Fold:
Amino acid sequence: MVAQRPIRKSAFTTYGKCQKKFEYLYNSPDYFNYGLDEAEQNDPLRRGNLFHNGCDKFFAELEGKIKTSNITSIFRTLLPTITDPRDSIVNTWFDWFAETEKERYIELDEANQMGCFIPIATELEIKLPDTIDRTGHVDRVDIIPGTKDLCITEYKTGKSYDMDNSYSFTDMNKEIGFYVQIMNTASIFPNNKITHWKVINPTLEKIWINKISPISLRSVEVLYKEITNKILSKDKFQRNIGVLCKSCPFVIECMDGYYQEDVKNEPFEI
Ligand code: SF4
Structure:
C-alpha cells in the first residue's frame, strides 16, 4: 500500500470548515510548505510569522539570564524591532507582549515559581505514527505554576481568533485537541499531564486560559477517523460553499468543477 501523506493540523482544521478544501490542500504539491514560502505570504501571514519568530527568540535570549536583577527592564530589547514600514504594527505587538510577560514574571517571582517562566518547549514539531500519521507544530508549552501540569500556548495574531466568540472557541478546542492527542499518545512529555491551553493575541491584546475539554478530545478522534476513512476509501469530499470561498486559494478549480459536475445549469453565488 502506498504510504499516505500525514494529516497536518492545518489540514485537519480545514476539513472541519470544508471537506473539499481539505482534499485540494492534502493533494497540493505545496502541502508541506503551505504558507511558508515568503514570496507567497500575504501581509497577515508574514506579520504572524514575524511575531512567532520574535517571541521564540525572546525566550532563547533569556536562557541563563532569567534571574538577573532588573531583567524585566530589558524585555522589550530582547524582542526584534521591525524596520519594514509595511509591518510596523508588529512592533506594537512586541511592546504589548513585553509588558504582559513582565507582569507574568513579577507574579511568578512573588509566588516563588520563577522556574516556570521559561517554557519547557517552543516551536515544537510533533508526530504520531497512526493509520495515517498525524503531525503538528506547537508554538509553546508552559508548566503550570505549582504543578507538573502543562499548558499548550498558541500565538494568534488574527482578529478572528477571539476566544470570546463561540465559533473561534470551538475551533481552538479542536486545534488544541489535535495536539493533545498526538502529545499524549506519542508520550512526548511522559511525566506531565496536559491540562490547559492558552491563546495569546496581541492584535486584540487579550490572553485566554482554558481547561482541555475531554469532549473535544473525543470529537478529534471521531473526525480523524472520518478523514482517514475518506482518504483510504477514496470517498467523495463535500463542498461547503459559503463566505469562506471568497478567500479560498482553490476557488477557481473548485468552482469550475462544481459548475460542470454538479449544478450545470444553476449558477452559484459566493
Ligand atoms: S471554494 Fe469554497 S467550496 Fe470550494 S474548496 Fe474552497 S471553501 Fe470549499
